[in-house]
Design brief:
Blueprint lengths: L1 E4 L9 H10 L4 E4 L1 H7 L7 E5 L3 H10 L3 E6 L4 E6 L2 E7 L1 E6 L4 E5 L3 H6 L9 E3 L4 E4 L3 H7 L8 H7 L2 H13 L5 H9 L9 H12 L4 H10 L3 H4 L7 H13 L6 H9 L7 H6 L4 H12 L8 H10 L3 H12 L2 H11 L11 H5 L5 H17 L6 H12 L1
Parallel strand pairs: 3-6
Antiparallel strand pairs: 1-10, 2-3, 2-9, 4-5, 5-6, 7-8, 9-10
Helix pairs in contact: 7-9, 7-10, 12-17, 13-15, 16-17, 16-18, 17-18, 20-21
Length: 401
């Protein structure tokens, strides 16, 4: 074990109070995990996790008596959340694993920080810090791995993965975030156990994969996961056209905008067969996400990407920019789309001046109304929205003759 004397700085202004309260009750306490890892790298961390020998019921009792709001977020697993001065802190009792089925673990409490560190996933996530001693506790060379950009499992990689198969996805996320070189041993056991990803709840898989897609270098991570067929264990994808996926980010950069996760998912599904709204909901996409993704995918049926179609998208979609990116990547018409994007992006969207009542007054109803509205709307868009209401009514009258 390495004990490194170093003063770390944290964004939180209130963490020390909680640690002092716990220490005053004759319990050992440290910061642990991501907040320590990030502080070593000089990164501000929003989440401050605290680990202690104090049992959860005692944590709850002590902080409630001090007027803090205490939330039993995972009290049966040893975790409570304490709200103090506007900040939320997770306080977890030191634990050791008794058994695991790859999804859930049975644990018991311990007073040993090393035993608790053993149950964590990667060396860089097992670091703990005592601000009273200004000392980093590193049981598995996590600081060295952090400096060299190596993400590796603690001890037996096969065993760590079998404790929780979600760690396969976490390996790729943390590699994408902190990795400079791949740990081949960790990668090999991810590949060996990849089929067990299907044993996990869809909620956990979706949540973790969302985080991967939000990484700045997400496309590199996706390429790696695709190359070893782990991507296909996560999503119903039979084939991924990587150049389209990469092109989309380049187009977004060109448009000086972001690439939404829904657009990324649509690109992942675009060449992999049919994916329905219902299937997406089954995969634990929200209903809003599912609607956006299926809306984007429906564009693949479009036969002609012309000026009219792009204007119609701009007019009808609040997130038209994402549609433009998707169209550019799928149909490889970036120049055409970019020209239209630059022309339209700062324009105020006009309001179509005709409605159903206008056509009813002309004696147009039923199926014919829908067809006529579509026809005159097309004429209006093709005129670059210049045709007036009266001119559009005249067109409708002429068609009725």
């Amino acid at each position: 074990m390495l004990e490194l004397k170093k003063k770390l700085h944290f964004k939180s202004e209130n963490y020390l109070y909680l640690l002092e309260v716990i220490k005053s009750q004759n319990h050992n306490v440290r910061l642990v995990g991501g907040v320590v890892r990030d502080a070593i790298l000089g990164i501000d961390s929003e989440d401050v996790d605290i680990t202690t020998s104090m049992r959860p019921e005692e944590v709850k009792k002590v902080f409630t008596s001090l007027g803090c709001k205490v939330i039993p977020t995972g009290i049966k697993f040893g975790t409570v959340s304490v709200l103090y001065n506007g900040e939320l802190f997770e306080i977890t009792t030191l634990r050791k694993d008794l058994s695991s089925d790859g999804r859930h673990s049975q644990v018991e409490y311990t007073d040993d920080f090393y035993i608790d560190a053993l149950r964590r996933d990667f060396t860089i996530n097992a670091l703990s810090y005592c601000p009273f001693e200004e000392k980093i506790y590193d049981y598995f060379d996590g600081v060295k791995d952090l400096e060299s950009g190596l993400v590796r499992f603690i001890g037996d990689a096969d065993l760590r993965i079998k404790e929780d198969y979600l760690r396969i996805l976490r390996f790729f996320r943390f590699f994408g975030k902190f990795g400079k070189k791949i740990d081949q041993n960790s990668l090999n056991f991810c590949i060996k156990n990849k089929s067990f990803i299907k044993n996990l709840s869809r909620e956990r898989v979706k949540s973790e994969f969302d985080l991967i897609l939000k990484l700045p270098n997400y496309s590199d991570v996706i390429i790696l996961m695709n190359s070893i067929s782990i991507l296909q264990e996560i999503l119903p994808i039979s084939y991924l056209k990587l150049d389209e996926f990469i092109d989309a980010q380049n187009i977004a950069n060109k448009f000086s905008t972001y690439l939404a996760n829904e657009t990324k998912y649509a690109l992942l599904f675009a060449r992999g067969g049919d994916i329905s709204y219902t299937r997406l909901v089954d995969l634990k996409f929200s209903r809003i996400e599912a609607r956006i993704i299926t809306d984007l995918l429906s564009i693949q049926r479009q036969k002609n990407i012309d000026e009219y179609f792009l204007k119609e998208i701009w007019l009808g979609k609040n997130n038209f920019c994402q549609f433009f990116i998707f169209i550019s990547a799928i149909f490889q018409v970036t120049k055409k789309v970019e020209t239209m994007f630059l022309l339209l992006k700062n324009q105020q969207k006009p309001l179509f001046p005709i409605n159903g009542n206008d056509l009813l007054s002309l004696g147009i109803s039923g199926i014919m109304m829908g067809k006529e509205l579509a026809y005159i709307k097309r004429k209006w868009i093709e005129s670059d929205f210049a045709l007036t209401k009266q001119e559009l009514i005249n067109i409708a009258k002429k068609n009725e003759k």
